[in-house]
Input
Amino acid sequence: MQLLFLIEPATPLGFTATDVDGPQITLSWTNAIGIRTRYDVTTSPVLSPSITTSNSITYSSGVTDGQRYNITITTVSGTELSDPLEATFRTVSKTPDPPTTPTCSETTDMSITLTWTAPSFPKGDVQYYVVNSVTTNAMFTTTSSLAQYTVTGLQPATNYAFRVATVNDAVSPHSNQSSFSTQVGCWTRAAMSQEPNTLIVSQEQSRQFTLNWTKPSITNGNLNGYRLTVFEGSTCVQEVIFKCETCTGFTSFVHTSSCQLTAKQSVVIPPADIEGYTYTVENLNPYINYTIHVLGVNAAGDGHPNIMYGMTKQEVPQNPTALTAEVLSSTEIRVSWAISDPEPGPTSYTLYIIPESPEQIKTITIQGFSTRTYNVTSLQEYRIYQFNLTASTVLGTAVFQQSLPSAKTNAAAPGQVSNFQVVRPDGPNFITVMVSWELPAILDRNSDIIKYMFSHNSTGGNMNSAPEEILISGNIKTVKRNLEVVPHNTYYIEVYAVGTDTDGILYIGQKSISIYLAPITGKYLSAYQAGIVARNSFLL
Output
């Protein structure tokens, strides 16, 4: 018989990026020991070919300058493959292509913001860009590869031409800067008004604050009025324009499109108010840090804004409403409520859980104005609970002012009966034992108790197959049963309550069991013989 042993070929070693200066590159490695048919070579990004029979491979097309590649080389011997050699290499960075589509994205009277598209073939890692003002021959460099730059210090109403070059990580003999892109021409705006000299926020209340500002030192012409914009975050919530229609050279101006129509107002002011103005911003929300812009408007349009921040104060919450209670189980109720916006500040709710006796009132603190429900857990079974709610901030408390809702938890199996006793009567009677018990404790009833089930074994026999059913009588607190017993015999006595709910479902209670040893007659009885052990009941 001839045995054939298959030996896995060895993994290649010693990977070398022999020549990675494109457009043609060569990679090599040390031949694997043993028999080999070929090498399978894969790269990411993908290059072709992917098979070679020698210990090197050459790529002459599709090679990208300055590109990082992952390479995997596997030895193939017949149908057997080696573990792969994994490595990385990078081609030589070369002079990059210029960026494309330079655009003037934003202009003021003194600045122009340029954006452009990064080159499709950066031929390396872009380090930064060079922005050239063809108009002034000034050069500006960005601080990163971000394709945007704002040129400042410009003159109003002037046309400027710009072009942009890419700078990557190429080294000599290759230049690391591209040629410049095509030019783009941009006009700065006409001279804008400088920002108002002062802007003061005062008299902050929960729904309003007061602003006072003074005329800009440099207006670059006559002012037509002012524009006030109030932001919550980045959202415009109010815009007010103040028009001086009787001022010299007045040109009307309109609202911007950034605010909703309902948030826009117009105020006509006399020339004297151009020097300084006081205005109360109303209809705000409590405990919001608003951003306030005030700017002068001249013939060129909106000027530079003076920016301040105004924080409204907290207030007492509105009264909670629509308080409801929904039963989820025998121990859990979901409480829900409503409260009117706006949020008055950091808000906490106090939920009052009002039970029947003998339980005590409990309170739960719930944080967060937006909270509208709370699941109350660990309640007692088949009990009525009433609920109340308050909402509070540091400034005060608001109370739910309608009828308090209530709910009854679902029924469950009753607990053990209480005061369960198995005792011999006083005197010489040794053939009788007295069994007595009462309703389970209030918090253990868990349903409407309607009867007891009472069982015991006969002398020398097993537990009764049919327990005695004892209906609840409203006039009897303690249930008693006398059993005849034979001295020195052991008896098993069992009793449990049965409850129901409003749907008539029955709930079988926890069993109480006693083991009773009937005492021997006549003689002095030891504690054990007297059956005191019968007093030790336990739960099944």
User: Anything to note?
Assistant: Residues 27 and 210 are 73 Å apart (CA to CA). Helices lie at 442-445. Residues 1-5, 522-540 have pLDDT under 50 and may be disordered.
